[in-house]
Amino acid sequence: MSLFLLCRRQISLQRSTPAADGMGGVARVWTTLFADVPATILTLHGQNLVRLPRRQTAVSHVVLTPQSLAAELGDRIFDGVYYYQVRHTENLGDRDSGWAVFVERLEPQAG
To answer: Which of 6, 89, 92, 91 is closest to 41 using CA atoms?
Structure first.
């Protein structure tokens, strides 16, 4: 079965960039790099540890996409409801046929 057929949700990839605020300081602004990317988001049971070179990272979900997002550590993914912090990205096969982005779901901020 094609990975594309499983991708029924739309996500966006955002990256933090510094920008000047109104007081002359620097603020963090999230810039959307990709929007309306087909994806599926799978919940991992518990806080699974992904073994990465020289470190271990707790992740809660994996995002599967048919295209490379060029996601980097610290980027975030938004699915219309939740934000997810990117922890690791892996190519799933030959010829960039699919990508897995391991993420940790961020809890909503009260305020």
So the answer is: 6
pLDDT reading at 23 higher than 60? yes
Higher pLDDT, 70 or 108: 70
> Would you state the structure tokens that stand for residue 80, as one six-digit string?
């219309």
Residue 4 CA to residue 51 CA, distance in Å, equals 27
Residue found under tokens 């897995």: 100
Q: Which domains does the chain have, with CATH numbers?
A: 6-17+27-106 (2.40.10.370)
How high is the pLDDT of residue 37? Answer: 93
Which residue in 35, 47, 23, 21 sits closest to 80, CA to CA? 35
Beta-bridged to residue 34, according to DSSP, are: 13
Q: Of 18, 48, 44, 47, whose CA–CA distance to 31 is shortest?
A: 18
pTM of the model: 0.81
* Residue (of 34, 81, 31) closest to 61 by Cα position: 81
Judged on CB neighbours under 10 Å (0-12, 13-18, 19+), 38 is: middle
